[in-house]
Automatic annotation (TrEMBL):
Keywords: Hydrolase. Its EC number is 3.1.2.-. This is Acyl-CoA thioesterase. Pfam families: 4HBT_2. One of its GO terms (molecular function) is hydrolase activity. PANTHER family: 4-HYDROXYBENZOYL-COA THIOESTERASE FAMILY MEMBER, ACYL-COA THIOESTER HYDROLASE YBGC. The keyword Transport does not apply. It comes from Marinobacter aromaticivorans.
Amino acid sequence: MTEQKPIQWDLPDPFTLEILVVEEDTDELGHANNVVYVRWLEDISWAHVKSLGMTWELHEATGKAMAITRTEIDYLAAANPGDRLVMGTWLTGFDGRFRSARQFQLVRPADGKTLVRAVSTHACVDLKTQRPSRAPKEFADIMQAACVAGGKGL
């Protein structure tokens, strides 16, 4: 069994998702392709909001969703096939009306190295019109309770 270094998270108590890099994640350079990182950000975002109670059923019931408006990714080191990674995420901002922010950190526990840092912003939209819309109270209550201080907010 290999010893893993403790993870030095950028913020406390992240919601985490374990990731195994597979061959299908790689590109011609032999490391995880940038598009795959975006998929991982999406996967953990949905898992996190579901864990907070923002299920798809709630989205359908309210007719609203939080749509990504911007994603910024800093690729710090490559992820390679066979790497076991841990992605952490936090809600780091909510304006109480329309917009929210999320922060991410991708770590390889085997060496404790942070491979990626990312932030995304989101806007509430109406599911039918795809137009901006005020976040329903259910979303606002969940996001306000889940926001952590000290991160990259709005």
